[in-house]
Amino acid sequence: MFFSDIVGQDKIKSHLLGLVKENRVPHALLLAGSPGSGKLPLALAFAQYLMCQNPRENEPCGTCSACNKVSKLIHPDLHFVYPSKAGKEKVDSPDDAKADGQEDLLAIWRKMVLGNPYLDETDWLDAIDMRNKQSVISVATASEVIRKLNLKSYESDCKVMIVWMAERMNQQAANKLLKLIEEPPAKTYFIMVSENPNLIIKTILSRTQQIYVPPLSSSSIAIALTEKLGISPDRARDISRVANGSYRQALNLLNQSTSKYFEQYRNLMRLCYAKQYPNLIDWVDDISRLDREEQKDFLNYSLRLTRDSLMLNLSLENLSYLMGDEAEFGKKFSPFLGMANVNQVARAFTHAYECIAQNGNPQITFASMIFQLAKLIGPSGNA
Ligand SMILES: [Zn+2]
Predict the structure, then answer these.
(1) Nearest-5° Cα angle at 276, 290 to 375
(2) Which of 73, 163, 230, 257 is deepest in the core (most CB within 10 A)?
(3) Using one digit for the tens of pLDDT, what is the confidence trace for 325-372?
(4) Could you give the CA distance from residue 374 to residue 380 in angstroms, rounded to a whole number?
């Protein structure tokens, strides 16, 4: 990874390069900040710069064998630690690691990071089937780190260990790593990445140089979307405005900017406005054919759009998260969703959601919902 691949964060990039130029790279570095700000990409670019055989002034060369291997995350002197299932507490040999599924994890890790280095913990836990489960950096992982770092370097004159989500280290793992950080093997660099450094034990923090990585500015996100992904400046601006300083969030929004439920919502609102009851009955038939989870998703989506249209009605555009077609429709439709009726409209969606969640009959539920909505929305409604 090159520094130029990373969105924004110019100050942090020059700070990291400055550490190398002034020959004061600390043994332990912590990049801390909110999700999607680019901590892991910065760690990767910095690792590549440290390991490159022929670094240029502000970038690794990109062509030496170290660069080649680091960019594929397969350099034998570049190690990764990440949260996973709390498993066997002892991994002594690579064979044990294999048996413990560590090798599989590493393959998933490489694929995920190469696909999107802006991944967050949820993406990772989904990929390893650990969502909603307790994940840790366990003492077994820490022991494995120590074993690897005590080996002599294979190919590079330095070794780099990236500890991702360092706050997930449990007490024993942290204590093990602490020893290593206190007396690091020569030319060994720890780069820790954390969203919540307060959860890391103080003794590690006190031996670590901390760098705060701020959320991205919306202009950096917009420029990256346009330059890297060819997104039109208007759409890039819309997305960056609601991405909350996170490039990962921006990429997510890009992929799902118009929900598959948008057409259904728009039809529903138009038909209610026009009181076209025969068409509304057809609409009920259509939505009743979806499965129950999809019906619930649709109702949640409708609630969100209704809320955001109200924000537009109140000219609180900054509080609306609508983009593209949704925003256009929301603006046109917002005059019909005001303080006078929005609560009742929201209640109609919520009530339908509860009925569907409790296995109510979809035909009856949605039919009752459209009659309420048709009364509430439109020229003769309460708006
Ligand atoms: Zn190189």
Answers:
(1) 90
(2) 163
(3) 777 787 788 888 877 888 899 999 999 999 998 999 999 999 999 999
(4) 10
The pTM of the full predicted model, rounded to 2 decimals, is 0.71
Q: How far is the CA of 246 from the centre of ligand 1 (A)?
A: 29
Q: Is 294 inside a domain boundary?
A: yes
- In a shared domain, residues 64 and 156: yes
Domain that holds residue 27: 3-214
Q: Is residue 381 part of a domain?
A: no
For residue 16, report the distance from its CA to the centre of ligand 1, in Å.
Answer: 17
**Shared-domain flag, residues 94 and 39:** yes
Ligand 1 centre and the CA of 63: distance in Å? Answer: 5
Report the 10 Å Cβ neighbour count for 12.
Answer: 22
Residues 19 and 66 in one domain: yes
Packing angle, helices 324-333 and 233-242, rounded to 10: 80
pLDDT at 165 over 80: yes
Does a structural domain hold residue 383? no
Q: Name the burial class of residue 75, with classes exposed (0-12), middle (13-18) and buried (19+) by CB atoms within 10 angstroms of its CB.
A: buried
Distance 52 CA to ligand 1 centre (A): 4
Distance 20 CA to ligand 1 centre (A): 15
382 lies in a domain?
Answer: no
pLDDT at residue number 91: 45
Same domain, 149 and 246: no
What is the distance in A from the centroid of ligand 1 to the CA of 223? 27
What is the per-residue pLDDT for 92?
47
